[in-house]
Batch of 4 targets.
Target 1
Amino acid sequence: MPQRTRIPFVHLAALALTWLVAACGGDPGGGNTLTVAISSPSATAFTATTITVQVAVTGAPDAVELRRDGDLLVALTPPYTYVWSTAGEAEGSHDLTAVARRGGTQVVSEPRTVVVDRTRPTVAARTPAPGDDNVWVGEPIVVTFSEPVRTATLTPGTVALEVEGGSPVATTLTPGGDGRSVTLTPDGPIAVPATLRLILSDAIADLAGNALVAPPPWSWKLPRWQWMGGTALRVDDGHTIGQARLALDAADRPVTVWLEEVGGTVPPSDVQAAAWDGQAWEGLGGRLNGDDRMGPMYGYQDVAVASDGTVVIAWNTPVYGVPDRLWVHRWDGATWQAIGGGPINDPEVVSAIGRVSLTLDELDRPVVAWSARPGGSAAAGEVRISRWTGSAWADVGAPRRRDPTHVSYNPVLVLDAAGHPVVAWSERLDDTTTYDVFADRWSGSAWVPLGGSLRVGSWTAAFVLDLATGPDGEVHAALQVRVSDDARVAVRRWSEGGGAWVGLGGSLEATPDGQATAATLTIDELGRPLLLWHERVPGDGGGDVGVHRLRRYETAIWRDLQFPVTTTPAYVGLGGDVATSDTGEVFVAAAWPDPDGLRHHLRVYRSNGVP
């Protein structure tokens, strides 16, 4: 009987390993392992014409193939290089794989994607829009392409910005992360007004090397003053707006509040507010005064922004048939909340009439100066200052007026460098035709006069219109002054060292026989006063027209900042407001005429850079 040959266990294990290596295309030593890989392209590739494919192989294969989307493209021989012409291929993505065989063994490479693209890229979007004549100098300049382009083709020679009719503008080019856009940032300030033009070259190419279908050069305008949003601010086009106030938040974004006359037989007015979100205006909560409709343009309002961005508004509501009330509201992001839960005043005891002026203290608590009429309509008016303590409204000292027999009204309020309230007001003297201006500062325990009368020289009357403090904390007052029937504006500064009010450049009117009806004042980061006023001037066709004026006090002269002049049938409103950022940009809110000249809307402008 034949004997069965016995194979030791260790020999069986070695034989199994040999079979496994053969199946994997190699041997135990690894010197003859079958491998295949596409070494070039090494990643996703793009082509419009041909592309060279290189395959790396080890292990002495019997055959090597290059497959496209699973189908045989070509059989390869050493050195396993193939120049693939994609002329007959469909545009789009194709997966390439290399296959190596030896005996019964087959190995397959990792796939490589090749995108066949013969379509030239185009410009899909442009910012600013071609022909836009209201572009802010800080608006990003962005070109968006129809597909990703090669970053290396985006150079100052292929993406060129220039001042039309002038010189090239040096820029920094920042490609978008997806390769579909490029942002241009001018390397330095651009003098305005200016027209910029952008030129794109067909040397820009997509990832497959297709040249850009370059559009004609396009241009846009940087005006000296840019109308923010290009939007008329009012709730309804049939309404007209009155006075407007303006404040900036910590990011130098404006917030504005205005009166809007609703219309009707006895047209009531509402208080409205809006904030700039960086791109557009956002209305804040609709009408503020609820069902208490004010008489036509009889209300007054003011606005301030806390350090955390919270908007605070103060206004009075002269409502038909009931005593006037004074409100201070805080915007909580969704609704307006009355600080204190109701009006500051008890309307049955003290009526809130005329102007209200608002500021925030170092703890962002509101302080309000307001015109009060205690004891009924026959009582003389007086100026009161109220502060929110955090839990209640409290008077700051006694009501202000220089003579207890006089009427004081229309106060304005600021804080000095030490955080102490400074209030100025208009006061009607005994003869009822002479008006004066006085100012006091709160010492912490009492009101201390800042000098005497602000009315000087030949002025027969003076009315305070605004107060402002600058970086040095010095107080400036904007006044309307009269010499007989000639109404002008003037600015006076309180000199701490001299203990007196000092005039800045004399009284102002831009046009002979002009009548200044309103003015607002701010101080820029360099301590220079900026004065905005509304002036009624004789019109070319007879009658008066209204214009806005803006000037800055520089080295003993008032320089015209060339704010856009608008003419309209005389509009005796309370004008607008002016504010300036820490970088010197100027913001102006002003009533603007509709094309028909019958109504007005609110516009907010900002200077294109430092004017």
Target 2
Amino acid sequence: MSKDDTEKPAAGSAASRRAVLKGLVGVPVVAGLGISAAAKQMYENNADNRSNNLNIEASTPPLAGPLDGEPIRLGIVGYGIRGKQLMRALGFAHQSWIDEMEESARTRGDTRLEHFLGQASLNVEIRGVCDVFEVNAQMAIEAGTTSDKNKGKNSPKRYRHYLELIDSPDIDAVVIATPDHWHAPMATAALNAGKHVYVEKPLAHNFTELYKLAESEKRSGKVLQVGHQHRQTQSFLTAQDVIRKNVLGHISLIQANTNRNSDNGAWQYPIHSEANPQTIDWEQFLGPNNEKIAFDKERFFRWRKWWAYGSGISGDLLTHDYDRINCVVGLGIPSSVIASGGIYTHRDGREVPDVFQALLEFPKFESGASQQPGKEQGMAFVYSATLGNQYSRETLIMGHDGTMELGKRLIVKADANSTRYKDWLESGQVDPEVPLYAYNPGSKRVDGYTSPTAKYFADKGLLYTYRNGKRLDSTHLHMWEWLSCIRHGGTTSCGIQAGFEEAIPALMATYSYRTGQKIEFDHATNWLKTNKSMAEIDEILVAPNTDLARSNISLEG
């Protein structure tokens, strides 16, 4: 790492605040709001006063610890869409992707290859790969093959079954990027085998697997990181300080949204031309807990559309937004969830809804107040999703004193009836239509990410972040943190507790949608308020829609 990458003004110093204000908050943000010249001038004249009063820290934290020593030996399970992205975040790209990015850079100014080549080395070796599709497995081997003048050539070993990879003494840690129904079983097996684990979200596909995984993690002493990479995004780290400083006052409503309108965004992924029963281990894909059905290429490549393998909008997309807010506000687990929706835009045989709404309630939530004690308590989290329209709706955290828009950038506006900012509002130092505080470290363009789905992730702060003006892959930083904790100890930013708090609300939302009932959680017992057994609930979560429609599964109790 260069000197320029590490040195910065001390956090909280006047120089730091001025740099943030002038470099990130100033005219570019205000100029785009269509406000008057007089309002712009007032905003700029009072900038230092606001900055000193709010005292929000936007200086970047240091990168995770050093990665020196012997390479950590990794096993990769799953080399599909996300698996390829995780391998690149680790520093291993397939030549076909490099060729594609070189062409895209020449013709469209795409900077993805440039940023990939500029990543720091994480000092790892890919020692094993496992994928049930032969084509993916071979590509993973090719991507993970390296040559070193001192150590010679390292080519990852192909494992036919994930348990063989996990049990191998040549593997120190496992990266899991499989369909949802395999996340928790594989992570649990890896922890039980003494391996460190990086596992994609959602953490679990049902309640039984989640609680088993939590127990295994507790016993293992190994490092687990859940793949919510936005925890490395600077706007979210800055937002945490906004909450710590009680800039918003008591938060009573949070609004988060998913908006997509493309086949890819609706999980209509391409079906590979070489897919057939000879190239895909269909039995291993299904797993031990799923009904044995005939080989189906669509179910294999578009697995998110079926309850048996995917988790619908709740597990795929609500989990992103829930953890984004949880890492900022500290929600924990809601007291109740009620969800609804349906298949309204993609009648293609799918089981999971493409329009989905969920209301999560926190009646005892408190975030600090500017009014008399005891007046403000409780909060609702409203999640709204459609896969039939991509109009961008902001993530909003709404408090008595202000509202925060949260994504790859951050904007705070004072509320017109704020108690904390009453004097500023009355004197004209603050206008509710003009940002009280803003953070936007990068430009608005998406650097070659031209698909609507990719732009969706970028706008939510899920693709990249900035460190001292340098753009970095958030997933790269998230894996760096995990690897550093493996080497030196410490706690990952998204360990088992954060993963548990992401998984429970998502499972509650799915259960509510499938039963049409309000689902309550008992914080005293750490379990749902229900007379049903965990096994009975899990059966409802994964049952085909036809089974529920025929009432083969009782919804009473």
Target 3
Amino acid sequence: MRAVVAGLLIALGVNLLLVVPEWWMPYTQFPSPWLAAETLIVLGIIWSLPMRLARGLAPLLSVAILVAVALALSDLATGWALGRPMNLLIDIPLATSVEHLLRGAIGAPLAWLTLVLAALAVGAVFVWLARTLRRGIPPHGARQLRVAGLVLLAAGLLLQHHRDWPAIDSAVDAPAIIRFNDQSVRVLDTARERQQFSQALRRTPDAVGPSLERLAGRDVILGFIESYGTVMLDDPRYRATGRAALEAFGQSLDAAGLKVVTGRFDSPVQGGQSWLAHGTVLSGHWMNNQIRYDLFLNAERSSLVEDFDRAGYQTVAVMPAITDPWPAGEQWGYDRIDDHARIDYAGPALNWVTMPDQYTWHYLESAVREATTDPVFAEVALISSHAPWTPILPIIDWARVGDGAIFDRWADAGPAPGEVWSEGARIRDHYQRAVDYALRTAGEWAGRSLDDGVLILLGDHQPAPLITGDSTSRTVPVHVIARDPALLEGFESMGFRAGVMPGPATAGTLADLRGRLLSVFSNPRQGSRSNEQQ
């Protein structure tokens, strides 16, 4: 009787652990099974095997079940955050990014407490599961339970094998088997892709250094607005805010005599991993995972950084969110990297955001452009629109920005991240307001300070699926701004159109952008359309 009761607990516990994550899984054709075939398989193993062997297998079965659940939860997390399933080969390093984001959102003590409690919960579930499995092992002589175990094992294997049959697929799935199989396929495919991309880098020679003579020594600013995707223009929930922000952006440009062309481009990522989008633009190669990023850097191939360096530019990375050592920055070959430690900012951190965009733009002008007589090529990361999107600051008088101490008054402004993230509507509202701030701030800076320079202002990626909903688009706006309209004419034959709004069609991918910029800036009468996605 004890084994039967324990068996029922096993069936209930294992089944819930395996099927509940599937109810929210975005990457399955059958999101709400009520029976996992593995439930019958596990119970069948415990009941049918000899007692000693079953006791030895109980901890191993517990580990296998928990690993399957961990894979499912990881798929859920990366699906909600990045719009794709988890890949062990490329996503393990992201664990540190999660911890860093958690610390920025709720503070280090709560972040570590959350992680410790999560680890304790996993340990408690393992102990409960292993003990329950052992209690479910039938005593010697319980032939009826052993026969029942063989029947359950056979039934579980048959259901797993035929789970797609019309009479079965409405209720039964095999979540653990699917997770292990899918993860194996992803890892093998990624390993194969690594080899193919590495070979492609060796086969494709670097382009001859462009002259960039059309720029005539103008400064070029490459500004990435965090999470600025075309969802702000296409989704009815955000369209009014997005278009109003772009109208204000355009008015700032018009008042200063600046012209703009805009295109819609596919980003390699969604919801996070902004550096892959940055790397895609800089390299001209499609970088949708960390392996491609690392392979490119280790291959020592040329990039926009080298292109401008050869043309006599001082190359600068303004990276206010970089708070730890950044070896990749040195590999990109910048003359100067202004990270959080180097940027002279006396104001407060604003949850995850280390400083507001308005200060970043102010710093770019006062400490970078005005500090050198050489033309400047600067990559600028604009992070005010990074989650958790609180607080959202007003744009203050630019003459009062100074060293940033004036922002102290907003150190504790707005709701806490936990309050914002407790409700979907509130999250979405704060997202659009943060992007609105980023666009208006960029427009004001350009109108005041761009002068004869060129600004390429673009989104790095669409926000997380939590914001975009069911949309699968990964397009981002790319604006090219300059005072000389003739400098922008070449872009209009490449999918850009005049004004701050992109056309409805995608003009290419961010991997195409390097080739198009170099083509226009080197020769205004001739454009090329690169389709580099190797």
Target 4
Amino acid sequence: MNESGRKLALLMMVAAGAIFSMLRCWEAGRPVSLPDAPAGRLACVSYTPARRMATAEAVMTPAQIDADLRRLADRFQCVRTYAVARGLDAVPAVARKYGMKVLLGVWIGPDAADNEAEIRTATRVAAENADVIRAIVVGNEVLLRHEQSEEALRGYLERVRAATRLPVTYADVWEFWRRHPGLAGAASLITIHILPYWENHPVAVGAALDHAREVYAEMQRQFPGRHILIGETGWPTAGRPRGGAIPSRVNAARYLREFTRYAVEHGIDYNLFEAYDQPWKRAAEGTVGGSWGLYDVNGASKFSLQGPVRETEDWRGGLQAASAGALLFMIIGAVVPPRAGRRGMFLMAAAGVAAGAALAAQCEYLSRDSRDAAEWMLSGAGAAWGWLAFFCALIALRSWAGAGAALPRVAGIEEVAVVLRRRGGWSMSHTLGLLRFGLLAGLSYLNLGLVLDGRYRDFPIPLLALPVAGLALLEAVRGRDAERAPLAPEELLMAWWLPLAAVLILIAEKGLNFTVWSWAALCVLLAGGTCGWRRPPAGEQQCARQQSQAGREVAVK
């Protein structure tokens, strides 16, 4: 393809990126019709009030609990707690004020002294508030965490039932009730957790209700005649996808509405997970761990129980950012030399649309996924590095497409190191080479975590899409005979690792969602752009290596 054809191809690819960005903004704001939840208040919801705190160890005041339950009472008849320590012993008294019942939680962990303190407090609270306590949940997923034996849990259940004379139960993932049916004899009811997203084989939202129905039926067969409470079920609103199970506001609203309609129609006792987002859980479970709430950390409802639902309520923000980006980039193209011409202006406008939409996505990503100042700084530094790489690639492409300037080659890291040691002769080629090396290292490190232990790790696509696309375009529009810098062994290693990791991630996720395919595309684009979509003839490569070696020798002397 001649140079004119390559310039046309560049404009078409950037225009396609701009159109795709606009479509993503439109899709996020598109109202999705869903079945309505049942009229009236829903059955019960998990309540952990530490959402405003850095950890779950914070002590809650009665005033804070009162504000939370006043809001929940409009939607729910009951709340489930998980402990009575750190101020949570006040929940039943506050719940009475708003006409709510309580599934009182007793936290059982590996420490015997802590367990005894929980049981003593729960016994006191039960004696003072027996009229509002539906049942006492002695332990939550203790078997799942391997913190107590079945025999020890049975002993705790029997002690609490004898001391309070109230119904007692133990709550765990449904598979653990199947593995430990002996606990049923000590429990007044069977409390199971059904979370389709967290299954060992994740269930997509379209099949989630069928999965919950099948699990419930299986538990009925295993424990005939027993009352079964679904103690946790729900869907996350944000975080990494797992196979076909994709966290989103629309999917969470869909599952909650479909499940509650089915539960009411068939008389199933249930508790939804959970009332409020818990950002402190992100430390152990990633973004998704803190994103199960029906309300956000500020107490705002994430979606309604009736009517259409949008993935992003502030959906106009993305379109406005895209429009502002187009205007800003056109101004830059008009005032910054060299004169861009029509092709250059079109390139800047289309790139501005994509950049504006990407900035809106980055702001949402950073505000949602950054838990503290350290994470804000780390993610912000990564975003700044990416923006610098994108702008440098865009400047080079604009000068070539709009003003006929030569495209700078991207220097290898060895050449960059030579120039840094000489402290002179720095050029755009070296800037691009350094920025590309940083992106290679960053993606290689992220992929190592995603491949070896990816269950709770996010895909930071909003931070990386622009710089990777810019560098890939810069390499893709080069001519067949264009000079390309030699690569250091570590650059080659990382460039080969990226597509390999992408394949492993696709296999692990079964290729069932758009996110993992997007991540794989980024890996392939960066690797392809690094190695060169078209390698120069062997003679040119050898000549370039000799020139690079000569430069290093001069620097050493």
